[in-house]
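Note to self: keep these together.
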Amino acid sequence: MSSSHALRRALTGVALLGTVGAGTWAWQHYHTQPSQQSASSKTGKDSSKAGQGPAVPVTVATVQKASFPVYLTSLGTVQGFNTVVVRTRVDGQVDQIAFKEGQIVQAGDLIAQIDPRPFQATLDQAKAKKAQDQANLANAQLDLSRSVRLGEFATKQQTDTQRSTVQQLTAQIAADEAAIANAQTQLDYASVRAPISGVTGIRQVDKGNIVNAATQTGIVTIAQIEPIAVIFTAPEERVSDINKAQAAQPLRVIALSTDGKTRLSEGVLSVVNNQVDSNSGTVRLKAVFDNKDHALWPGLAVSTELLVKTLDDVVVAPNEAIQHGPDGLYAYAVDADNKAQVRKLEVGPANDRNTVITAGLEPGDRVIVGGQYKVKPGSTVAFKVADGQPHGGPTTGSTVAGAR
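Structure:
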């Protein structure tokens, strides 16, 4: 019994020592951890102050020196270079429609045939009248010759009467010739022909209808589409620039779809209207396009780009690089140490892709075009080159899209 009691006391002592040791370790760990956390926090702050944070991922592009075409953009409407409503010039019944709707016809092609019989009859009658008068003239000339040969045996009155008859019949024949020409013209009008080359529209008259020259309804409309015209406008303050440039050489005009994504055709400016619209403050312009592929169609709405001038050897940067701040325009440039620097900018003409930089950037500068919202002045950046951008130095002498 005594040995068993001694064993229990020994085990109890071991358990008590273990409990005291665990409590001591917990107390030491509890008081040590805050100081370690504080030290770690201080170390992080010092590291941040030292600028040792991770590099900011961005996209960069290279500032270039290039030729920059300056465009004026506008909306315009396509119209036929010439548009004619084909009408009949005589009255009658339509015997034939000689075209198909939407057909391209040439000047002189038959469009419709009016019943020609009444006009042919009138022409035949005029020719017969001329033949009759010619016979009467021949007889009068014989009578005049006889009177002249009789000499003193014919009275002067008889001779003068015969001479007057010849003159009257000669004038009558001239009138007959005019009547024949008129009758022939009316007969020709019975064949309605295309006055210009172009594409026909929807037919307004069917075979068998009675038409007359007094009605305003035409048989069909023909629009000339080769070449074709586009009417658009420009601000009144640019009239002087346009006229000066046009005096040097015909200005190039590009026609695009209304969303500006599809290039349709290229032509030249032909007319600057002779007055400015005081209500809208714009001037109407007319451009002419060859339109061999028929990409332009009468009535089509298009966007236009008028090339006014080209700026040579100017500094050009992508629009994405230009930021707006309280002090004006600026851009982030990446220096040799891959750190972001703020550059204040002065700019010139721009388009939907590029802007002319007049101050603040130089050719070859790398500017941030993506990821700027994460960048601060002095930030270290890890960059990739934007698609379509050179990986080396600036591109000199190239042409970039112009201001629109």
